[in-house]
Amino acid sequence: MDLLGAWRAFVNVSEHGSFTEGAAATRVPQSVASRRIAALEKHLGERLLDRSSRHVTLTRFGRDMLPSAKRLVRLAEAMEDEAERARLSPLRLAVPDVCSVRDLALLAAEARRKGVYLDFHPAPPGERAELVRSREVRAALTAMPPDDGTWTVRLGLAGVSAPAVRTVYLETLRAGRAGLESGRRRIWIQPEDDVPHIRDRVFRVRDAVGLQPAQVAVASTLVAATAEVVASEDLLLCSPHQAEELGLRWRPIGEVRVSRGFDVAAAIGDDAERLRTRLRAQIARCLGADEPEPEEGPAP
């Protein structure tokens, strides 16, 4: 039996003195309101309403129960209001600086359709996990090695002009390989990729192929890195999605495969799971993540 629904019907019928009007106030048919109250009376073992006269009146037991019933209904309504406010309360999410305004807007719109209201807080990788720990945000898309993450974003090199090759080898940037100007070209690592599993791997290749230390540098901001690339023959370490947004030509790196990895960290576990399950594809698009490989079908 729906006890709350029965008490709500009892309160409304009592206040209106009519099953018809009380049922309308409860937003149920009259027959439903009547059955609910009858079931409640059977459950309690006493009659609540006197139906013998033209107008519905309270029995002595009904008069004694009415104040408590009103308190119960008011409390239930207050809880429903609190639940609605909690459902609509924005989930503050720390996101990488590399996410574009358009992609974040599309993510927020899709999240809203699925009952999740997002409030974005862009931050560099080193700060996002700390923001969760300090409870300044409820969740964060944190950087991690790609093998450990939920989303993977492959990286390569992008420049203003289209390279003549399908793959860029760092050794071709070494001084003396293709002229003096080629030797001065630099690779810019943006702040999002200033993490050990990306930066250190690129540095090791730099050293192995004999590039000058200054030829692979970490930029202070993505804007600064992009400005250097646009104004010269320098290259930006980035994803294909980012390169397209910036109007650059992207190619993979020949000597090493580097990727961003992302997962969700949250102060409350179910926030992380909601984001992973309800918005997995939309977050992937926002990050520029690789499409998942299709599952192999059964062997013929």
UniProtKB/TrEMBL annotation:
Listed SUPFAM superfamilies: Winged helix' DNA-binding domain
Domain of life: Bacteria
Gene3D superfamilies: Winged helix-like DNA-binding domain superfamily/Winged helix DNA-binding domain
InterPro entries cross-referenced by the UniProt entry: LysR_HTH_N, WH-like_DNA-bd_sf, WH_DNA-bd_sf
Keyword Lipid metabolism belongs to the record: no
Ranges for domain HTH lysR-type: 1-59
Keyword Transcription: yes
Keywords on record: DNA-binding, Transcription, Transcription regulation
Family: Belongs to the LysR transcriptional regulatory family.
Protein name listed in UniProt: LysR family transcriptional regulator
Organism field: Actinoallomurus liliacearum
